Amino acid sequence: MLSQTVVKRLKEIVGEKNVVTDKVGLLTYGYDGTLLSGEALGVVSPKTTEQVVEIVKLMNEHNIKLVPRGAGTNESGGTIPSQDSVVISFSKMTKIHEIDTENFVAVVEPGVINFDLQVELEKKKFYFPPDPSSYKASTIGGNVGECSGGPKCFKYGVTRDYILGLEVVLPNGQVIQTGGRNFQSEPGYDLTRIIVGAEGTLGLVTKVFVRIIPMPRAKKTMLAIYDKVEDASRTVADIVAAGIIPTTLELMDNLLINTTEDFTHAGLPRDAGAVLIIEVDGYPEDMDAQVKTIGEIASKIAKEFKVAQSAIEVDQVWTSRRSAFGSVARVRPSYGVNDITVPRSNFPKAIEGVLKVAKDFGVTIGVVAHAGDGNLHPLILFDQRNKEEVETVHAAEQALCMMALDLDGTISGEHGIGLVKKKYLDSEFSPIAMEAFRKVKRSFDPSNRFNPGKVIEL
Length: 458
Known about the structure:
Keywords: FAD, Flavoprotein, Oxidoreductase. GO terms for molecular function: FAD binding; oxidoreductase activity. By secondary structure, this protein is of the alpha+beta class. It is built from 16 helices and 18 strands. It folds into four domains: 86 residues, Uridine Diphospho-n-acetylenolpyruvylglucosamine Reductase, domain 2; 119 residues, Uridine Diphospho-n-acetylenolpyruvylglucosamine Reductase, domain 3, CATH 3.30.465.10; 190 residues, 3-Layer(aba) Sandwich (Vanillyl-alcohol Oxidase, Chain A, domain 3); 32 residues. The strands form four sheets. It has a seven-stranded antiparallel β-sheet, with helices on both faces. A five-stranded antiparallel β-sheet has the order 5-6-10-8-9. Strand 8 and strand 9 form a beta hairpin.
């Protein structure tokens, strides 16, 4: 338990309503998108950078660790609290300070929901391309912490490509700003890119300078339907090999088609082995040519190729895709989600590898993927109440990670390392690289107070 002295001081800093110490309240902050859980000493929700600084200094005085939390949607255990920590929730830091369309930058606080920012940008005919499937819940700060991706990554890149600068509270309570309003590069060491994806282990982000871009003048959405998921994977490779860069290139297999169809009734073909959702954007004059070329490539293998004829059709397709994760609860009560990523040319081999893992371990795996990026999300379905199933799932997850490394890929394309994938990190990186990671952590946080135990062990 937190001492009454600490609780009293926290309430003085942020107000009584923004401090949680009761057991039920703490339970709410003990979970994320994984099956892991923990219980913190308390939860504190600041509203300003100054309050964050005061909280950090107070925690240092009492030797208490801090675990940062956005919306808690992450899939790697990155926000799971330890028993000797306080959760610092950024849910109250939700200001959009500025949208500067002249310089293509927006300045926001970390608790801003991705979708809410998109809504405000759309009013000015701009947008922020990284939009993970959880964008209606996930925060910009969380996106920064995990270096989130999303369906548009193939053409536009991931979160790190759109962060121009950060305001960060360091573990010693000092505040620094990295980058700036419209810097395309950062003089000296690029601290911005070190902190993006660091999962709150190096500093607490209190302000984000994001790069925004004008909305495209036109877009077209297509659906390619296949008998087998392997056929869809070959079309992905063919499109990439042809030098075409769609905005999005998303894959869903038969299992996900049916579970999402049960929920959305979008009209996806239940008998299809897989579908590709393909979208292009740009100038109106370019649309027909791009659609024609992609259609010619897809139709060599696909049994059907369709172009959406209305905004309603487009919305139905994307509602299906974005509901994929939650929809599998109709089949089994639990799932383990992976985010292995391979070079695009190896995407068909990765699909074959996923199918082999499913067969070897006797598990059910649904596949949804940011296929253009080579980023796969195999969903292993199981019942967490069955301990034998849980053990099998963990073994299958390890096999998926090793398969990705064998294909020159990575164990994590966008969900981060957190607690879940920490044990696999030294399979991807050499001992020298791992020690470099530890030195970076120690240089920022020598006392290991910020999100301890996540990503690497000191």
